[in-house]
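Quick one - inputs below.
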Amino acid sequence: MSNAAPLVLGIESSCDETGVGIVRGTELLANAVASSVEEHVRFGGVVPEVASRAHLEAFVPMLEKAQADAGVSVADVDAIAVTSGPGLTGALLVGIAAAKALAIAYDKPLYGINHLVAHVCVDRLEHGELPEPTAALLVSGGHTNLLLVDDVTSSVRMLGETIDDAAGEAFDKVARLLGLPYPGGPQIDRAARDGDPTAIAFPRGLTSGRDMEKHRYDFSFSGLKSAVARHVEHEERMGREISVPDVAASFQDAVCDVLSAKTVRACLDHGAKHLVLGGGVAANQRLRHFVLERASEAGIEVRIPPPVLCTDNGAMVAALGSALVAKGVAPSSLDLPADSSMPVTQIVA
Amino acid sequence: MLILALDTAAPATSVALHDGSAVLAAVSHAGAMSHGELLGPAIVQVLATAGADRRDLTDVTVGVGPGPFTGLRVGIVTARTLAVSLRARLHGVCSLDVVAAQAVSDGVVDEAFVVATDARRKEVYWAEYTPSGERVGDADVARPADLAQRLPGTMPVLGRGADLYADVLNRVAGPADPDAAVLASMVAAGSALEIGTEPLYLRRPDATPAAQRKRASA
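Output:
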């Protein structure tokens, strides 16, 4: 009865990527992703309604591409998994409705799963079974979370998260201040390579003695963004030209310094010898550098999935779905709702 | 022939199953919203009530609005996915046409009329119909007062939008929301005007292009 490597189709539509992935246990068979990022550029950020409209148009093409890429039909899968939260409600509902239609059409069990936990579980496709416990730092335009994973199918805790902007959002906002296009992450990363990260002493949010008691693993980037804005305005008032590379490098170091320091601190405090990095910002070169350096000093193994698996995709949803089916976890019901603020402790809805 | 019909363009979630000659089963959750939660179970329910097998579906039809966007997408993505998965024919129909067809068959109108539904934000979605229920032109969105000014004062207006704005529109009693049973019958009879399954949003997304830069200090 037990199935060590269940074949699962996963659907992701929580933000601006429409993903359909197919996974057999820890083996990746297909990862079809359509992104509406280009449509959000002129708005300087993801517009939920624009993203939702794009999901509706992209879903069936991605479903067909995933089946063709994998050489597998939905008729063959053991289950359908779909992100049911957290994320944008209207966007989530497109994927959820589609998943239900597949579950009905093929008479398959349906799993509404947690997007954040899927970001951790996707590493199984690259590096195999997750050691337990594993810490995870998830950083994207929508999330900044520090998790402790005792068991990816049953026990995940939130150690900390941003109390204001997500890290990726801070990159977008600072990029705009510097006249760089959206999305800001890759732009800042590139500009910073020619800059001096010590040129401007930007604040490190929530790292003072008192904050480290109350917000030991939490993050804050809103004050940092304002500090960059004040710096830029001050320089302009003084009639000085702004060094975009220096500001980018100094800002980026402030973000990556705090993210990596708190993450390694959390690993040490909780005896986690392994760390998974996920989310779009995991592609940032400086963040990788800081995390790898500090983790290595602390004797922590860092697992970073390839970029296509770090950003939102359906394979990560399928990976978690497959782990849940293998563990015999009960499926969700057909009245599964979208849960925009699904807590990380809830792995299946 | 086994037709599954869905409409989620109104607050109601409406589902029906039709065998080409009669409606076999229908479920309607009036005014409930929550289309995302209600639609899947409603589909399973009509199949079970009729004792029908999903694999025998030959046609899937969906009301493509106009209507509130989130619910509309739930119905359309469901219909598209079911049709492609079950290799059934897919039919998209304007949801206002469904209300019009029911008004004609119920005999509540005998002249040219308008169907108006709730577009929220104090507006209505509307379209004009001939006495026999054929749509004249495209569906549109308007403020009730502006619509009233455009129409001959005697032209009857029916539907949820007419019920809501009876103070401004020449409201006549009639069906309020699209009924999937009527939609299924229209497809069965070959009388539905098929327009594909692109949603009739009729409004652009609410968003303004980013300003050049926001200032941090006053």
